[in-house]
Design brief:
The protein contains 15 helices and 4 strands. Strand 1 and strand 2 (about 75-80) form a beta hairpin. The chain has helices spanning about 1-30, 40-55, 80-85, 90-95, 100-120, 130-155, 170-175, 185-210, 210-220, 225-230, 235-255, 265-280, 285-300, 305-310, 315-330, and strands spanning about 60-70, 75-80, 170, 185. A two-stranded antiparallel ribbon has the order 1-2. By secondary structure, the protein is mainly alpha-helical. Pfam families: BPD_transp_2.
Length: about 350
Protein backbone atom coordinates (compact mmCIF):
# COMPACT_ATOMS: atom_id res chain seq x y z
CA UNK A 1 0.00 0.00 0.00
CA UNK A 2 2.85 2.38 0.79
CA UNK A 3 4.36 1.73 -2.64
CA UNK A 4 1.01 2.34 -4.34
CA UNK A 5 0.50 5.68 -2.55
CA UNK A 6 4.05 6.73 -3.41
CA UNK A 7 3.53 5.94 -7.10
CA UNK A 8 0.24 7.85 -7.10
CA UNK A 9 2.08 10.86 -5.68
CA UNK A 10 4.78 10.50 -8.35
CA UNK A 11 2.09 10.23 -10.99
CA UNK A 12 0.32 13.37 -9.81
CA UNK A 13 3.67 15.16 -9.89
CA UNK A 14 4.37 14.14 -13.50
CA UNK A 15 0.73 14.56 -14.44
CA UNK A 16 0.77 18.16 -13.19
CA UNK A 17 3.41 19.11 -15.75
CA UNK A 18 1.66 17.17 -18.52
CA UNK A 19 -1.72 18.69 -17.65
CA UNK A 20 -0.46 22.29 -17.55
CA UNK A 21 1.37 22.06 -20.88
CA UNK A 22 -1.54 20.18 -22.48
CA UNK A 23 -3.97 22.77 -21.11
CA UNK A 24 -2.06 25.55 -22.85
CA UNK A 25 -1.86 23.53 -26.06
CA UNK A 26 -5.61 22.91 -25.99
CA UNK A 27 -6.38 26.57 -25.28
CA UNK A 28 -4.49 27.54 -28.44
CA UNK A 29 -5.99 24.78 -30.56
CA UNK A 30 -9.51 25.29 -29.22
CA UNK A 31 -9.53 29.05 -29.78
CA UNK A 32 -7.33 29.47 -32.83
CA UNK A 33 -7.40 26.03 -34.44
CA UNK A 34 -3.58 26.09 -34.52
CA UNK A 35 -1.43 23.05 -33.75
CA UNK A 36 1.38 24.79 -31.90
CA UNK A 37 4.57 22.72 -31.83
CA UNK A 38 6.40 25.64 -30.23
CA UNK A 39 4.45 25.26 -27.00
CA UNK A 40 7.13 23.09 -25.39
CA UNK A 41 9.60 25.91 -26.02
CA UNK A 42 7.36 28.21 -23.96
CA UNK A 43 7.63 25.73 -21.08
CA UNK A 44 11.42 25.83 -21.48
CA UNK A 45 11.49 29.65 -21.56
CA UNK A 46 9.48 29.72 -18.35
CA UNK A 47 12.09 27.54 -16.65
CA UNK A 48 14.85 29.86 -17.86
CA UNK A 49 12.93 32.85 -16.49
CA UNK A 50 13.58 31.27 -13.08
CA UNK A 51 17.26 30.83 -13.99
CA UNK A 52 17.52 34.43 -15.18
CA UNK A 53 15.94 35.91 -12.07
CA UNK A 54 18.16 33.76 -9.87
CA UNK A 55 21.22 35.19 -11.64
CA UNK A 56 19.93 38.76 -11.50
CA UNK A 57 19.20 38.58 -7.79
CA UNK A 58 22.61 37.01 -7.19
CA UNK A 59 24.57 39.79 -8.92
CA UNK A 60 27.42 41.00 -6.74
CA UNK A 61 30.46 43.24 -6.69
CA UNK A 62 33.80 43.03 -4.95
CA UNK A 63 34.74 45.01 -1.87
CA UNK A 64 37.89 45.02 0.21
CA UNK A 65 37.38 43.49 3.67
CA UNK A 66 40.03 44.98 5.96
CA UNK A 67 39.14 42.50 8.73
CA UNK A 68 40.20 39.49 6.63
CA UNK A 69 43.71 38.88 5.35
CA UNK A 70 45.27 36.49 2.88
CA UNK A 71 48.44 34.50 3.67
CA UNK A 72 50.56 37.53 2.75
CA UNK A 73 48.66 39.79 5.12
CA UNK A 74 46.84 41.72 2.39
CA UNK A 75 43.13 42.58 2.81
CA UNK A 76 40.83 40.11 1.03
CA UNK A 77 38.46 41.02 -1.75
CA UNK A 78 35.06 39.43 -1.26
CA UNK A 79 31.92 39.28 -3.39
CA UNK A 80 28.92 41.02 -1.84
CA UNK A 81 25.51 40.60 -3.51
CA UNK A 82 23.71 43.86 -4.21
CA UNK A 83 20.67 42.41 -2.42
CA UNK A 84 22.72 42.28 0.80
CA UNK A 85 23.68 45.94 0.46
CA UNK A 86 20.21 47.16 -0.42
CA UNK A 87 18.14 45.11 2.05
CA UNK A 88 20.65 43.84 4.61
CA UNK A 89 22.30 40.40 4.76
CA UNK A 90 19.32 38.48 6.15
CA UNK A 91 16.52 39.94 4.00
CA UNK A 92 18.78 40.12 0.94
CA UNK A 93 19.74 36.46 1.24
CA UNK A 94 16.09 35.50 1.68
CA UNK A 95 15.20 37.32 -1.53
CA UNK A 96 17.94 35.43 -3.39
CA UNK A 97 16.84 32.08 -1.95
CA UNK A 98 13.20 32.70 -2.91
CA UNK A 99 14.08 33.50 -6.52
CA UNK A 100 11.95 30.66 -7.93
CA UNK A 101 8.64 31.75 -6.33
CA UNK A 102 9.48 35.38 -7.20
CA UNK A 103 10.03 34.25 -10.80
CA UNK A 104 6.29 33.62 -11.04
CA UNK A 105 5.70 37.37 -11.06
CA UNK A 106 8.82 37.96 -13.15
CA UNK A 107 7.76 35.49 -15.85
CA UNK A 108 4.12 36.53 -16.39
CA UNK A 109 4.77 39.75 -18.39
CA UNK A 110 7.64 38.10 -20.25
CA UNK A 111 5.57 35.08 -21.28
CA UNK A 112 2.58 37.26 -22.18
CA UNK A 113 4.78 39.42 -24.41
CA UNK A 114 6.32 36.37 -26.09
CA UNK A 115 2.87 34.85 -26.63
CA UNK A 116 1.46 38.02 -28.19
CA UNK A 117 4.55 38.51 -30.37
CA UNK A 118 4.40 34.88 -31.51
CA UNK A 119 0.71 35.05 -32.37
CA UNK A 120 0.75 38.46 -34.06
CA UNK A 121 4.10 38.02 -35.79
CA UNK A 122 3.81 34.46 -37.06
CA UNK A 123 0.89 32.28 -36.08
CA UNK A 124 -1.89 34.57 -37.34
CA UNK A 125 -0.65 34.07 -40.90
CA UNK A 126 -1.34 30.33 -40.65
CA UNK A 127 -4.89 30.27 -39.27
CA UNK A 128 -6.39 29.12 -42.54
CA UNK A 129 -3.44 27.04 -43.67
CA UNK A 130 -3.35 23.23 -43.37
CA UNK A 131 -2.34 21.76 -40.01
CA UNK A 132 0.79 20.34 -41.64
CA UNK A 133 1.97 23.90 -42.40
CA UNK A 134 1.24 24.97 -38.84
CA UNK A 135 3.22 22.06 -37.44
CA UNK A 136 6.23 22.75 -39.67
CA UNK A 137 6.43 26.48 -38.95
CA UNK A 138 5.88 26.19 -35.18
CA UNK A 139 8.30 23.27 -34.93
CA UNK A 140 10.89 25.38 -36.74
CA UNK A 141 10.21 28.24 -34.31
CA UNK A 142 10.71 25.84 -31.39
CA UNK A 143 14.13 24.84 -32.73
CA UNK A 144 15.12 28.51 -33.15
CA UNK A 145 14.08 29.32 -29.56
CA UNK A 146 15.91 26.24 -28.32
CA UNK A 147 19.13 27.26 -30.04
CA UNK A 148 18.85 30.83 -28.71
CA UNK A 149 18.61 29.47 -25.16
CA UNK A 150 21.54 27.16 -25.83
CA UNK A 151 23.64 30.06 -27.11
CA UNK A 152 23.04 32.29 -24.07
CA UNK A 153 22.87 29.69 -21.30
CA UNK A 154 24.97 26.82 -22.59
CA UNK A 155 24.16 23.16 -23.15
CA UNK A 156 24.46 21.93 -19.57
CA UNK A 157 21.56 21.80 -17.08
CA UNK A 158 21.52 24.71 -14.65
CA UNK A 159 20.63 23.84 -11.03
CA UNK A 160 17.86 26.11 -9.75
CA UNK A 161 17.18 25.22 -6.12
CA UNK A 162 13.89 25.71 -4.33
CA UNK A 163 13.80 27.92 -1.21
CA UNK A 164 15.54 26.21 1.75
CA UNK A 165 12.20 26.04 3.59
CA UNK A 166 10.97 23.58 0.95
CA UNK A 167 14.08 21.52 0.23
CA UNK A 168 13.25 18.78 2.74
CA UNK A 169 10.74 15.96 2.58
CA UNK A 170 7.29 15.57 4.06
CA UNK A 171 6.26 12.50 6.07
CA UNK A 172 3.14 11.78 4.07
CA UNK A 173 2.73 8.32 5.60
CA UNK A 174 2.29 9.69 9.12
CA UNK A 175 -0.36 12.07 7.81
CA UNK A 176 -2.55 9.27 6.43
CA UNK A 177 -2.08 6.85 9.33
CA UNK A 178 0.98 4.79 8.34
CA UNK A 179 4.13 4.36 10.38
CA UNK A 180 6.51 7.30 10.44
CA UNK A 181 9.06 7.49 7.59
CA UNK A 182 7.26 4.94 5.41
CA UNK A 183 6.12 7.44 2.75
CA UNK A 184 8.52 10.35 2.42
CA UNK A 185 7.88 12.84 -0.37
CA UNK A 186 9.70 16.09 -1.31
CA UNK A 187 7.94 19.28 -0.24
CA UNK A 188 8.50 21.03 -3.54
CA UNK A 189 6.81 18.29 -5.58
CA UNK A 190 3.73 18.62 -3.38
CA UNK A 191 3.85 22.38 -3.86
CA UNK A 192 4.14 21.90 -7.62
CA UNK A 193 1.01 19.74 -7.65
CA UNK A 194 -0.89 22.25 -5.52
CA UNK A 195 0.27 25.13 -7.71
CA UNK A 196 -0.83 23.25 -10.83
CA UNK A 197 -4.30 22.69 -9.42
CA UNK A 198 -4.60 26.41 -8.60
CA UNK A 199 -3.59 27.41 -12.15
CA UNK A 200 -5.92 24.86 -13.74
CA UNK A 201 -8.82 25.95 -11.54
CA UNK A 202 -8.05 29.59 -12.33
CA UNK A 203 -8.13 28.99 -16.09
CA UNK A 204 -11.41 27.08 -15.93
CA UNK A 205 -12.97 29.70 -13.66
CA UNK A 206 -11.82 32.47 -16.02
CA UNK A 207 -13.39 30.77 -19.03
CA UNK A 208 -16.56 29.78 -17.20
CA UNK A 209 -17.48 32.78 -15.07
CA UNK A 210 -16.11 35.89 -16.80
CA UNK A 211 -17.68 37.74 -19.71
CA UNK A 212 -14.38 37.57 -21.58
CA UNK A 213 -14.25 33.80 -21.13
CA UNK A 214 -17.86 33.37 -22.25
CA UNK A 215 -17.16 35.32 -25.44
CA UNK A 216 -14.07 33.20 -26.10
CA UNK A 217 -16.05 29.98 -25.60
CA UNK A 218 -18.70 31.30 -27.97
CA UNK A 219 -16.00 32.17 -30.49
CA UNK A 220 -14.60 28.65 -30.19
CA UNK A 221 -18.01 27.29 -31.12
CA UNK A 222 -18.93 29.81 -33.87
CA UNK A 223 -16.32 32.43 -34.69
CA UNK A 224 -18.20 34.02 -37.59
CA UNK A 225 -21.40 34.66 -35.63
CA UNK A 226 -19.51 36.28 -32.76
CA UNK A 227 -17.70 38.50 -35.27
CA UNK A 228 -21.04 39.59 -36.79
CA UNK A 229 -22.12 40.82 -33.35
CA UNK A 230 -19.38 43.46 -33.53
CA UNK A 231 -17.00 41.74 -31.12
CA UNK A 232 -13.31 41.85 -31.98
CA UNK A 233 -12.80 38.12 -31.48
CA UNK A 234 -9.30 38.24 -33.01
CA UNK A 235 -8.12 40.53 -30.19
CA UNK A 236 -9.58 38.16 -27.61
CA UNK A 237 -7.95 35.16 -29.25
CA UNK A 238 -4.59 36.97 -29.13
CA UNK A 239 -5.08 37.44 -25.39
CA UNK A 240 -5.90 33.73 -25.08
CA UNK A 241 -2.63 32.90 -26.83
CA UNK A 242 -0.85 35.08 -24.27
CA UNK A 243 -2.69 33.31 -21.43
CA UNK A 244 -1.71 29.91 -22.85
CA UNK A 245 1.92 31.07 -23.03
CA UNK A 246 1.73 32.21 -19.39
CA UNK A 247 0.34 28.83 -18.31
CA UNK A 248 3.22 27.03 -20.02
CA UNK A 249 5.73 29.51 -18.61
CA UNK A 250 4.44 29.14 -15.05
CA UNK A 251 4.63 25.37 -15.40
CA UNK A 252 8.28 25.74 -16.42
CA UNK A 253 9.13 28.19 -13.62
CA UNK A 254 7.87 25.92 -10.87
CA UNK A 255 9.37 22.82 -12.51
CA UNK A 256 12.89 24.29 -12.50
CA UNK A 257 13.83 22.98 -9.01
CA UNK A 258 12.52 19.50 -9.92
CA UNK A 259 14.44 19.13 -13.18
CA UNK A 260 17.37 21.50 -13.75
CA UNK A 261 16.55 23.63 -16.80
CA UNK A 262 18.30 22.72 -20.04
CA UNK A 263 17.79 23.83 -23.61
CA UNK A 264 16.05 20.64 -24.79
CA UNK A 265 13.56 20.24 -21.92
CA UNK A 266 10.80 21.76 -24.04
CA UNK A 267 11.16 19.07 -26.70
CA UNK A 268 11.25 16.40 -24.00
CA UNK A 269 7.80 17.42 -22.82
CA UNK A 270 6.32 18.46 -26.16
CA UNK A 271 5.74 15.01 -27.67
CA UNK A 272 4.29 13.61 -24.46
CA UNK A 273 2.04 16.64 -24.11
CA UNK A 274 0.66 16.19 -27.61
CA UNK A 275 -0.06 12.57 -26.78
CA UNK A 276 -1.92 13.83 -23.69
CA UNK A 277 -3.94 16.28 -25.82
CA UNK A 278 -4.88 13.60 -28.34
CA UNK A 279 -5.81 11.07 -25.65
CA UNK A 280 -7.91 13.67 -23.82
CA UNK A 281 -9.58 14.76 -27.04
CA UNK A 282 -8.48 17.55 -29.38
CA UNK A 283 -9.98 20.84 -28.23
CA UNK A 284 -11.25 19.48 -24.89
CA UNK A 285 -9.84 21.35 -21.87
CA UNK A 286 -11.22 18.89 -19.26
CA UNK A 287 -9.95 16.02 -21.42
CA UNK A 288 -6.42 17.48 -21.51
CA UNK A 289 -6.30 17.79 -17.71
CA UNK A 290 -7.82 14.34 -17.13
CA UNK A 291 -5.47 12.66 -19.61
CA UNK A 292 -2.45 14.48 -18.16
CA UNK A 293 -2.99 13.12 -14.67
CA UNK A 294 -4.10 9.70 -15.92
CA UNK A 295 -1.03 9.17 -18.09
CA UNK A 296 1.25 10.57 -15.39
CA UNK A 297 -0.02 7.99 -12.90
CA UNK A 298 0.20 5.16 -15.43
CA UNK A 299 3.79 6.11 -16.31
CA UNK A 300 4.67 6.24 -12.61
CA UNK A 301 3.36 2.73 -11.94
CA UNK A 302 5.14 1.43 -15.05
CA UNK A 303 8.42 2.70 -13.54
CA UNK A 304 8.14 0.43 -10.49
CA UNK A 305 10.95 -2.12 -10.15
CA UNK A 306 8.48 -5.00 -9.92
CA UNK A 307 6.93 -4.00 -13.27
CA UNK A 308 10.27 -3.39 -14.98
CA UNK A 309 11.52 -6.83 -13.91
CA UNK A 310 8.63 -8.38 -15.84
CA UNK A 311 8.46 -5.90 -18.74
CA UNK A 312 11.86 -4.20 -19.18
CA UNK A 313 11.57 -0.72 -20.67
CA UNK A 314 7.78 -0.61 -20.42
CA UNK A 315 7.97 2.80 -18.69
CA UNK A 316 9.39 4.29 -21.91
CA UNK A 317 6.46 3.23 -24.08
CA UNK A 318 3.50 2.81 -21.76
CA UNK A 319 2.03 6.23 -22.56
CA UNK A 320 2.08 5.48 -26.28
CA UNK A 321 0.52 2.05 -25.73
CA UNK A 322 -2.28 3.60 -23.70
CA UNK A 323 -2.77 6.21 -26.42
CA UNK A 324 -3.07 3.51 -29.09
CA UNK A 325 -5.61 1.55 -27.04
CA UNK A 326 -7.75 4.62 -26.29
CA UNK A 327 -7.69 5.91 -29.87
CA UNK A 328 -8.63 2.47 -31.24
CA UNK A 329 -11.63 2.32 -28.93
CA UNK A 330 -12.46 6.04 -28.82
CA UNK A 331 -11.08 7.71 -31.98
CA UNK A 332 -11.90 11.21 -30.69
CA UNK A 333 -10.13 10.62 -27.35
CA UNK A 334 -11.63 10.50 -23.89
CA UNK A 335 -13.61 13.74 -24.16
CA UNK A 336 -13.15 14.79 -27.77
CA UNK A 337 -15.84 16.63 -29.71
CA UNK A 338 -17.31 15.65 -33.05
CA UNK A 339 -15.82 17.50 -36.00
CA UNK A 340 -12.53 18.54 -34.36
CA UNK A 341 -9.56 17.61 -36.58
CA UNK A 342 -11.96 15.62 -38.77
CA UNK A 343 -12.31 16.32 -42.45
Amino acid sequence: MEAIILQILNGLDKGSAYALIALGLTLIFGTLGVVNFAHGALFMIGAFCAVTLQRLLGLSHQIVDETRKDFLGNPLKIDVPYMHEWFGPEIGQSIIEWSVPLAILFSIPIMAFIGIAMERGLVKHFYKRPHADQILVTFGLAIVLQEIIKYFYGANPIPTPAPPAFTGSFDFGALVGFDANTIIYPYWRLIYFSFSMIVIAGVFAFLQFTTFGMVVRAGMADRETVGLLGINIDKRFTIMFAIAACVAGLAGVMYAPINSPNYHMGMDFLVLSFVVVVVGGMGSLPGAVLAGFLLGIVESFASMTQILDIFPGINQIIIYLIAIIILLTRPRGLMGRKGVMEE
